[in-house]
Amino acid sequence: MARDSCTNRLSAILLTFLVAFSSTQTGDLMASRFSDLQGDPGLRSASALVIDADGKVIYGKDVDTVRPIASITKLMTAMVILDSGLDLDEKITVTRSDRDLVQLTGSRLEAGATLNRRQMIMLAIMSSENRAAAALGRTYPGGTRAFVAQMNEKASGLGMSNSRFADPAGLKVENLSTANDLAKMVSAAYSYPLIRQASTTQRLEVRPYKGRGPLAYGNTNRLLKNKSWDIALSKTGYINEAGRCLVMRATIEGEPVSIVLLNSFGKLTPFGDSNRLRKWMLAQK
Hints:
The chain is an alpha+beta fold.
């Protein structure tokens, strides 16, 4: 009986080892689909990073340089609002204090425009509406200052050690991060269904004014219209100091990848770089 018991224990240990070994090998096989790619995709973005679902780097370029990130900031804004548990159906009214006095951008949300918090998140993410983002921060408990502090605390909790946030809309040049840090933020943002929905909605109509017709908003990521792309999350950004920026979570040939592109010059460059990356990855499969 003792011998049988010992044999059973050894068999169980061996089986556990074989299962673990098999799982590891399968995981390595899945993660290696785009590993060891040769050549260079010829990107024009100053910083670029592509990682697989396990966080393994497929392509990296200047990934730890701290740069302004413009409206990529709004992903953090949306996460902090959703973390707070604030009522998404509560009405928020835009005030004059929500105007952009930094970059002097315009908005169709004039003082008095009223939408619920969910709609404000949708517009801030999909159409990069600056006043919507500003209103979200202003109506946070404690106001904008407390909101920005919470943005930085959230970043710290995500391990974004080279990042700093200065306003909810990303208008200040002091909103800073790296490609490596933003990959962590994209991964975190992907866990929020409303952010995924907002970032991939191509068109939305809202009625912020009584007695007036709807306002139609479109998504700032033109790749969503491209049937070659399967995009689950995205956010664009632009101010002069940051250049054109784009972050995405997309599926390429069945494999989820996160893409970060920073400091591109030329309105279409991030989209061109995304297509160059995809073509480079597929050509070497």
